[in-house]
Structure formats: structure tokens, C-alpha cells
Amino acid sequence: MKKEEFIDLLEDIDDEYIIRAQGETGNKKIFATKKWFALVAAIIIIGAFATVVAAKPECRIFFEETELEGEKAYFVCSELEKFSSGDFSENIKAVEKEIARQYRDYEPYMSSFPGHWYRHFSSASEAKEFIGFEKFSVPEIGIPERDFCISAYGDPSGKISHIRAEFFYLDTEDGYLGIQIFADALTENFEEDFFQSDILSEEEYRTVRETLNRKKTKFYIFDGEISQTGNRRTGIFFVKKGVLYYVNFAFSEEKTEKAEDIIQKVLNFY
Amino acid sequence: MKGSDFTEDLKIIELYFERNEKAISATDEKYGAYCMKISQNILGSTEDAEECVNDTYLAAWNSIPPKIPKILLLFLGKITRNISLNFYRKRHSEKRGGGEYEVVLDEISELVSGKENVEKDFERREILFAINDFLKTLDDEKRNIFVCRYWYFYSAKDIAKLFGKKESSVHSSLERTRKKLGKYLSERGFEL
Predict the structure, then answer these.
(1) A11 is a domain residue
(2) Is residue A73 within 8 Å of A67, Cβ to Cβ?
(3) Which of B130, B118, B165 has its CA nearest to residue B145?
(4) Please, which residues 45-104 of chain A have a Cβ atom closer than 8 Å to chain B?
(5) What is the CATH number of domain B6-91?
(6) pLDDT by residue (tens digit) across B45-103?
(7) Owning domain of residue A135
(8) Do B73 and A110 touch (CB under 8 A)?
(9) N or C: which end of chain A has fewer CB within 10 A?
């Protein structure tokens, strides 16, 4: 059989499998997130900002060993504060209703999987105003703002257990610099003991180092894999005011200095 | 994908039956992104994908009625896949394009001989039944990854994002599934 014929033959596999796979593609925002793939990369050079201050961090981040397809990997886990719905703006009620509606109207073959609401905003301040959560904070990054998104995850009754804010900045003038900030807040409806936010490969895990700034915030920093475009990547995890932050820097050689300045700014801000 | 109400699809199908041109815009609104993604995955070009998706709408217009799709999403997805594959083969008969199609073909080459066998219809159906049986043996994740790759033509990078995995894990999952499928078919007497 020719390869092309085999591809054509697969067209007629069981409809159920095609629909189920569509469920994966339909509910995870592949259209919106694809552009972010190209933007992820960075380097970080930790310099004079770190001060050796012995202090207990307010919430714990730890790494839990796991296995992915036979390879050793590590979950990034954290024990976070759990907030009440009163810590958020009134808009959260409409979001709760919308999530409950998603479950109510869920039609297995036709709908995106319920329980996840998200909305894009034109600026960080607009996003923060909508969610009305004082503890989400971002520094003045100083490069163009590109996208801001608030996501909420809830159960069939609409109760929200997790809210995520995503802030994205991009500077492509004379080089490349992309910065993503993810801020995760849990609510009292979150029933697990700790929150798993990401997975690091063993190679990434080996580069993890810890540092404290003058405000006694503890940062976990790792270097990621170099992307196909040659950009380098570094991520920073930390907890501030009960919120888990993950800041991802990506930059080309030309933007190294600028990236380092912003990294310094981020580390001083929190 | 927008919408969650099955009756919404029935309304769209009614528009086709009434020969109301709003059928096209309603289809585009609800399934445009879905069809575009399939076509873009195959072709790697937005412009070409737009052309194929427009052809999909035309094909839907010409076939409903008499056809009544049971599941509009599948109906449109299959047409888009088919039109896009044909478009690709015509356009790129001499050179490789930028989509996932060629890469998927390379991956498939380990499963098939590449020879010009003339499988009869009933033989093809038997092979298809065997493939479906094989897919049934896989856990949900492995099967969804396989279908995302070989039906939807998603890149390994996209699949990694969708399933929260490393790209290398996706490649190894696909490789293992292909090998298993080859063995499964061969054990049942299918020499492709």
C-alpha cells in the first residue's frame, strides 16, 4: 500500500475517535496559544540582585519526581493560600454562572469540555480591573503589551477552584524578546493539598537554583531548552501574597542586555 | 469552537435545505476555525487553507440536501481533510510544502511497503476494521495523540501543548503506537 492511500484510509476510522480527539483540540485553546510556542525561550543571568537573607518563604514550592514516557521529569508543586470568592470582584459571579451553564449544556459530541472559562483583555490593567483581585500584581515591564487573559476553572455547580491570569509582552525590534507572566490563585473550593503547575524535564530540573531578594521572596530559576529559532529560555517560579507566579523569558542574542534588565526588575519588584 | 447546542446544527442544516445562503455564514461562524485548523495543519498556508475551507462550504452546499449529516462537525471535518489533501497533492506534486503532510507521510512509511498493491474494497474495509480494533486497545491519551497526528495532522509541538507533554514524549508515543499498529496488522495477516 502507498503512504498516501494509508492516510486516505485513516479518514474512515471510527467517528467516535475523531470526535474524542477533537475534544482535546477544541477545549485547550490551540488557536490562541500556538503563537506563544514560538515565543518561549530565554536566558537569565543572576547577578547582584540576590541577597543572602535567611527567611522562611510564605508558601512552599517543591518538586515532585514523576515519569513521562519513560523519562524522569519533575512536577512543580506548591502549597498556596486559598482565597474566598469575596476576594474577587462581582464579575466572578457571572463567570460562575457561565461555568455552570457550560456543564448544563454540555453535549459530548459537540461541545468543548466544560469547566474552563477565559477572556482576553486589551491591557493588564483592564484584566486586573475585571477580576478585581488585588494580589495579582505585575511590574511595569517596559516593552509592548500584547495579550492578557484571565481563566477560571470550576465544577458543575459553578464553584471556581482556580483562577489564572496570563500577561504577555513582546518586543521584536532589532531582535526578539518575549515575556510571559502566569499568576495562579486558588480558592477555598480547591480541594487538593497542593497545586501542580508545570513539569520540568530532568535536564531543566538540574539547572534549578534558588535565590532570595531583599523582600525575602524566594525564587526558583531554571534554564529551559534552546528553541528551534535559537532563542534561549529561562523560567522563574515564586510565590507572592499566596499567588504562584511563573515568569518565562525568551530572547535572542541581541536582546540579552535588555532581558537581563527586565529580569532584574522583576526580581526586585516582587 | 463555538456553540454547544445540537439544535444549533439542526438549524444550520435547515438553512441548507431551504437553500438559504446564511447556511454558509452560520457554518463558518461555528466551524470555520475547526476547518481552518485541519486545512492549515495539512497545507501550512493560511491562504491555501482559506481556499480549501471555502471549497468545503461549497461541497457542503452541493451535498446538503440530499445528504443529512448526522454530525455536522465530522461531516465538515472529513470534507476539509479530503479537499486539503487533494489540494496539497496537486499543488506539491513536485516539491515539498510547509505543512505537516510530508512529515506525516514519512512517519507512515514504516507502516506500509509503498508498493502499488491493488487492495480490493473489501480488503480495505478489513484493514480499516483492524485499525479500529487496534485503536480500541489503546488508552484514551495514546489514541487521541495518534488521531490528532494522523487524522488532524497536528504537529508534534501542538500535540505536546494540547496534552501537557514534552515534544519528545509525543514523538516517542507516536513511534511506539506506529510500531504496535504495524505488529498488530502483520499478526493478523495484513501486509501493507
Answers:
(1) no
(2) yes
(3) B165
(4) 68-71, 73, 102
(5) 1.10.1740.10
(6) 888 899 999 999 999 998 888 888 878 988 999 999 999 998 888 776 544 455 677 77
(7) 30-269
(8) yes
(9) C
